[in-house]
Amino acid sequence: MKRTKNWTKQDAEAFIIGCLVWIGPGFHPDTPMIDYVTGDGNLTFNASEARINQVKMNMAWELLGESIYDILTEWGIKMGLQPAMEVNGYTIQWNGYWGKWMVDQEDCVTAQFLEFKDAVEYSMKG
Question: What's the pLDDT band for 1 if we cut at 50, 70, 90?
């Protein structure tokens, strides 16, 4: 991968998707890279890897801003980490990054709810 100072938005997006693959559904872009641990309690990255990946994460924030959350949601669903369901023409999906149930219609978020039942009720009303 090229040096971060030469990154494009596509490079930053590829890194974000890679983090989702390497770290899994526990990945959150605000968590320092040195804080990730494996299931057995070991560090996911050694100090050098964490430092390098943190520089990459910082550049991703610079290039992508809040759209990082949209990328994570899209790829989390594609990877089966965030299942989506269809109700009455609406798509309901959990967005762990925002901590809300999102209700979409034709790829546009129409409502957000803290409780799943509220998202379903909203969708049923159409």
Answer: low
